[in-house]
Specification:
single chain, alpha+beta, six-stranded antiparallel beta sheet, 6 strands, elongated
Length: 221
């Protein structure tokens, strides 16, 4: 019993470091936390044990309280940058090199949120015979059919007549309940500069020019 009590300070440190790491990482990474307290406790002990041993490898000590505060702050920094690294292009390239064909981000809509490409959403509203198209801004988290927010949007009827045009307005947005629409399309239009560059390159490359024509025809069809 005396031995167990003597381990308590270390166990508490493991739990604190692990819990802080998990909370910060999941907040930045936008990952849903489990509700099972036993699972959280086990994870905290494992991560805390690993972190404590990493810190122990650096024999720098001032006093107990400052050392603990330093470890907690270091844990926050490590968790933050690790979550950011997983979202980075470098990490995606590492996965590609290892032939791992999957995104590290588990939520489809979060993956779009973190994309550096401009994503446009087209929603077909069959109930009111209209089409809504706008730039994707953000989405509700932890929901397979979330509420999504669109900016720079246009609402047209099925004949193509414009009902409401906010395409030049970046301030006002519209919220779409994706659970109500079975057909939702995504697109990543190229900036004009990139299009001109691609067209210029294709003039000097006949094979690329043919491929671009086929791609354009495919999109029109």
């Amino acid at each position: 019993m005396t031995e167990i009590i003597s381990y308590l300070p270390n166990i508490i440190i493991y739990l604190v470091l692990g819990f802080v790491f998990i909370k910060v990482f999941r907040f930045v990474y936008i990952e849903e936390s489990p509700n099972d307290s036993q699972h959280i406790l086990t994870e905290s002990l494992i991560y805390g044990f690993i972190l404590q041993n990493i810190y122990s490898a650096f024999p720098i000590s001032i006093n107990t309280y400052i050392d603990i505060i330093g470890m907690v702050l270091s844990t926050v920094i490590i968790a933050y940058f690790l979550a950011k690294f997983i979202y980075s292009k470098l990490f995606s390239k590492i996965l590609a090199k290892l032939k791992i064909q999957q995104t590290p981000i588990k939520d489809f809509w979060i993956d779009i949120t973190h994309s550096k490409e401009r994503t446009y959403i087209t929603v077909y509203d069959k109930e009111f015979d209209r089409v809504i198209n706008g730039r994707f801004a953000r989405a509700e988290t932890f929901n397979k059919r979330p509420l999504i927010q669109l900016s720079e949007y246009i609402i047209k009827n099925t004949r193509g007549d414009i009902i409401f045009d906010m395409s030049l307005n970046t301030a006002d947005t519209i919220v779409i309940d994706t659970s109500k629409y079975p057909e939702i399309m995504l697109s990543h239009p190229q900036p004009k500069a990139e299009k001109k560059s691609e067209e210029s390159q294709s003039k000097h490359n006949p094979i690329k020019s043919i491929l671009n024509k086929i791609k354009t025809k495919f999109h029109h069809d």
